[in-house]
Amino acid sequence: MESVLRSVIVPCRNAKLGCTENIPYGRDSNHEKKYCRFSLCSCPEIKECNYTGLYNEILFHYLVSHLLKPDCFFTFGEPRNVRMAINDKNLVLMTLPKTLLFVVQCFREPNGVYVALNSLAPLGPEVEKFSYRISYYFDGGTCSHKLPEMKRILEVSYQTPQDKNFMFVSNSLLCGEVLEMELCISEIK
Ligand SMILES: [Zn+2]
Ligand SMILES: [Zn+2]
Protein backbone atom coordinates (compact mmCIF):
# COMPACT_ATOMS: atom_id res chain seq x y z
CA MET A 1 0.00 0.00 0.00
CA GLU A 2 2.72 2.39 1.00
CA SER A 3 4.67 1.78 -2.17
CA VAL A 4 1.56 2.45 -4.22
CA LEU A 5 1.13 5.77 -2.43
CA ARG A 6 4.76 6.59 -2.93
CA SER A 7 4.37 6.34 -6.65
CA VAL A 8 1.28 8.56 -6.76
CA ILE A 9 1.83 12.01 -8.07
CA VAL A 10 -0.41 14.92 -7.32
CA PRO A 11 -0.61 18.50 -8.57
CA CYS A 12 1.52 21.13 -6.82
CA ARG A 13 -0.45 22.88 -4.07
CA ASN A 14 -0.18 26.07 -6.12
CA ALA A 15 -2.10 24.52 -9.02
CA LYS A 16 -4.99 26.92 -8.39
CA LEU A 17 -2.60 29.80 -8.90
CA GLY A 18 -1.45 28.37 -12.20
CA CYS A 19 1.32 25.86 -11.49
CA THR A 20 1.25 22.80 -13.75
CA GLU A 21 3.95 20.77 -11.94
CA ASN A 22 3.16 17.40 -10.42
CA ILE A 23 4.92 16.20 -7.30
CA PRO A 24 5.15 12.88 -5.45
CA TYR A 25 2.32 12.51 -2.96
CA GLY A 26 3.11 12.81 0.74
CA ARG A 27 6.78 13.67 0.39
CA ASP A 28 8.31 16.99 1.31
CA SER A 29 8.76 18.61 -2.02
CA ASN A 30 11.50 21.12 -2.70
CA HIS A 31 9.43 22.30 -5.61
CA GLU A 32 6.60 23.42 -3.31
CA LYS A 33 8.90 24.70 -0.58
CA LYS A 34 11.35 26.74 -2.62
CA TYR A 35 11.22 26.45 -6.36
CA CYS A 36 7.61 26.90 -7.40
CA ARG A 37 7.26 30.28 -9.07
CA PHE A 38 3.75 30.49 -7.66
CA SER A 39 5.06 30.33 -4.07
CA LEU A 40 3.80 33.27 -2.10
CA CYS A 41 6.28 35.92 -0.94
CA SER A 42 5.61 38.01 2.16
CA CYS A 43 5.64 41.78 2.04
CA PRO A 44 9.02 42.96 3.37
CA GLU A 45 7.26 45.18 5.94
CA ILE A 46 6.49 41.94 7.70
CA LYS A 47 6.00 43.55 11.12
CA GLU A 48 3.19 45.81 10.03
CA CYS A 49 1.74 44.13 6.95
CA ASN A 50 0.61 40.57 6.38
CA TYR A 51 0.25 40.70 2.60
CA THR A 52 1.54 37.73 0.66
CA GLY A 53 1.61 37.53 -3.11
CA LEU A 54 3.38 36.22 -6.16
CA TYR A 55 6.96 37.44 -6.52
CA ASN A 56 6.15 39.50 -9.59
CA GLU A 57 3.07 41.11 -8.04
CA ILE A 58 4.43 42.13 -4.68
CA LEU A 59 6.00 45.29 -6.10
CA PHE A 60 2.56 46.65 -7.04
CA HIS A 61 1.33 45.98 -3.53
CA TYR A 62 4.39 47.75 -2.12
CA LEU A 63 3.99 50.79 -4.37
CA VAL A 64 0.40 51.43 -3.28
CA SER A 65 0.59 50.34 0.35
CA HIS A 66 3.88 51.58 1.77
CA LEU A 67 5.78 54.78 2.05
CA LEU A 68 8.62 54.74 -0.47
CA LYS A 69 12.07 55.87 0.61
CA PRO A 70 13.25 58.75 -1.59
CA ASP A 71 16.10 56.79 -3.12
CA CYS A 72 14.52 53.37 -3.44
CA PHE A 73 14.84 53.22 -7.24
CA PHE A 74 18.02 51.99 -8.88
CA THR A 75 19.32 51.10 -12.34
CA PHE A 76 20.93 47.74 -13.09
CA GLY A 77 24.69 47.86 -13.44
CA GLU A 78 25.04 51.39 -12.03
CA PRO A 79 26.76 51.83 -8.69
CA ARG A 80 24.80 54.04 -6.35
CA ASN A 81 25.08 55.30 -2.83
CA VAL A 82 22.75 54.00 -0.19
CA ARG A 83 22.35 55.51 3.25
CA MET A 84 20.81 53.31 5.81
CA ALA A 85 20.34 53.72 9.55
CA ILE A 86 21.47 50.50 11.21
CA ASN A 87 18.28 50.43 13.26
CA ASP A 88 16.07 50.67 10.16
CA LYS A 89 16.54 46.96 9.63
CA ASN A 90 15.02 46.98 6.10
CA LEU A 91 15.62 49.06 3.03
CA VAL A 92 13.48 48.09 0.06
CA LEU A 93 14.89 48.82 -3.39
CA MET A 94 13.19 48.47 -6.75
CA THR A 95 13.72 49.08 -10.41
CA LEU A 96 10.73 49.54 -12.62
CA PRO A 97 11.66 47.49 -15.68
CA LYS A 98 11.45 44.47 -13.36
CA THR A 99 8.55 43.95 -11.02
CA LEU A 100 10.73 42.66 -8.23
CA LEU A 101 11.70 43.82 -4.77
CA PHE A 102 15.22 43.81 -3.36
CA VAL A 103 15.76 44.13 0.36
CA VAL A 104 18.86 45.39 2.18
CA GLN A 105 18.92 44.36 5.83
CA CYS A 106 21.22 45.23 8.73
CA PHE A 107 21.72 42.89 11.65
CA ARG A 108 23.48 44.18 14.73
CA GLU A 109 25.61 41.70 16.59
CA PRO A 110 27.97 42.29 19.54
CA ASN A 111 31.02 42.41 17.24
CA GLY A 112 29.59 44.54 14.44
CA VAL A 113 26.91 44.82 11.79
CA TYR A 114 25.99 42.30 9.09
CA VAL A 115 24.49 43.70 5.90
CA ALA A 116 22.60 41.39 3.56
CA LEU A 117 20.95 42.01 0.20
CA ASN A 118 18.38 39.54 -1.10
CA SER A 119 15.69 39.51 -3.71
CA LEU A 120 12.18 38.58 -2.76
CA ALA A 121 11.42 35.64 -5.06
CA PRO A 122 11.32 31.85 -5.15
CA LEU A 123 14.29 29.82 -6.38
CA GLY A 124 12.57 28.59 -9.54
CA PRO A 125 14.61 28.64 -12.75
CA GLU A 126 12.14 31.02 -14.44
CA VAL A 127 13.00 33.80 -12.01
CA GLU A 128 15.69 36.22 -13.21
CA LYS A 129 19.07 36.09 -11.52
CA PHE A 130 21.13 38.99 -10.25
CA SER A 131 24.64 39.57 -9.00
CA TYR A 132 25.67 42.39 -6.69
CA ARG A 133 28.49 44.19 -5.03
CA ILE A 134 28.11 46.13 -1.82
CA SER A 135 30.83 48.29 -0.27
CA TYR A 136 31.18 50.27 2.91
CA TYR A 137 33.74 53.06 2.93
CA PHE A 138 35.45 54.20 6.08
CA ASP A 139 38.43 56.37 6.88
CA GLY A 140 41.30 54.64 5.17
CA GLY A 141 39.61 51.65 3.65
CA THR A 142 36.71 49.73 2.24
CA CYS A 143 34.74 46.63 3.24
CA SER A 144 33.22 44.88 0.26
CA HIS A 145 31.09 41.91 -0.45
CA LYS A 146 30.34 40.47 -3.87
CA LEU A 147 27.97 37.70 -4.74
CA PRO A 148 27.81 36.21 -8.24
CA GLU A 149 24.21 35.17 -7.64
CA MET A 150 22.00 37.04 -5.22
CA LYS A 151 20.13 34.94 -2.72
CA ARG A 152 16.37 34.75 -3.10
CA ILE A 153 14.06 34.59 -0.13
CA LEU A 154 10.30 34.22 0.27
CA GLU A 155 10.20 36.45 3.32
CA VAL A 156 12.55 38.67 5.27
CA SER A 157 13.90 37.22 8.47
CA TYR A 158 15.24 39.07 11.49
CA GLN A 159 17.71 36.30 12.25
CA THR A 160 21.31 37.16 11.51
CA PRO A 161 22.29 35.21 8.38
CA GLN A 162 23.99 31.90 9.11
CA ASP A 163 25.41 31.54 5.61
CA LYS A 164 28.16 33.62 3.98
CA ASN A 165 25.84 35.92 2.07
CA PHE A 166 26.48 39.19 3.87
CA MET A 167 28.97 42.01 4.33
CA PHE A 168 30.42 42.30 7.81
CA VAL A 169 31.39 45.70 9.24
CA SER A 170 33.14 45.39 12.58
CA ASN A 171 32.37 47.85 15.39
CA SER A 172 35.76 49.54 15.06
CA LEU A 173 34.90 50.59 11.47
CA LEU A 174 31.47 52.01 12.21
CA CYS A 175 31.03 55.73 12.48
CA GLY A 176 27.69 56.45 14.07
CA GLU A 177 24.34 54.86 13.45
CA VAL A 178 24.18 55.34 9.70
CA LEU A 179 25.90 53.18 7.09
CA GLU A 180 27.01 54.95 3.91
CA MET A 181 27.36 52.23 1.33
CA GLU A 182 27.76 51.78 -2.39
CA LEU A 183 25.62 49.18 -4.06
CA CYS A 184 25.55 47.80 -7.56
CA ILE A 185 23.04 45.20 -8.71
CA SER A 186 23.41 43.62 -12.15
CA GLU A 187 21.29 41.27 -14.18
CA ILE A 188 22.79 37.89 -15.02
CA LYS A 189 21.98 37.33 -18.67
ZN1 LIG B 1 4.29 24.61 -8.19
ZN1 LIG C 1 2.85 45.33 2.63
Question: Can you describe this structure?
Answer:
There is one protein chain. This protein is elongated. It folds into two domains: 2-35, no CATH class; 41-188, Apoptosis, Tumor Necrosis Factor Receptor Associated Protein 2, Chain A. It is built from three helices and 13 strands. It has helices at residues 2-6, 30-35, 58-65; strands at 9-11, 22-24, 41-42, 52-53, 80-85, 90-95, 98-109, 112-120, 129-138, 141-147, 151-153, 167-170, 178-188. With 189 residues, the chain is mostly beta strands. The model has no long low-confidence stretch (mean pLDDT 91). It starts with a helix and ends with a strand. Strands 6, 7, 8, 11 and 12 form a five-stranded mixed beta sheet that branches. Strands 5-13-9-10 form a four-stranded antiparallel beta sheet, with no helix packed on it. It has a two-stranded antiparallel ribbon with strand order 1-2. Bound molecules: zinc ion (2 copies). Residues 43, 45, 49, 51, 61, 65-66 line the site of one zinc ion. One zinc ion is lined by residues 43, 45, 49, 51, 61, 65-66. This is SIAH-type domain-containing protein. Pfam families: Sina_ZnF. Residues 7-67 form the SIAH-type domain.
Describe what is shown at a glance:
One of its GO terms (molecular function) is zinc ion binding. Residues 7-67 form the SIAH-type domain. With 189 residues, the chain is mainly beta.
Entry keywords:
mainly beta; 2 domains; five-stranded mixed beta sheet; 3 helices; elongated
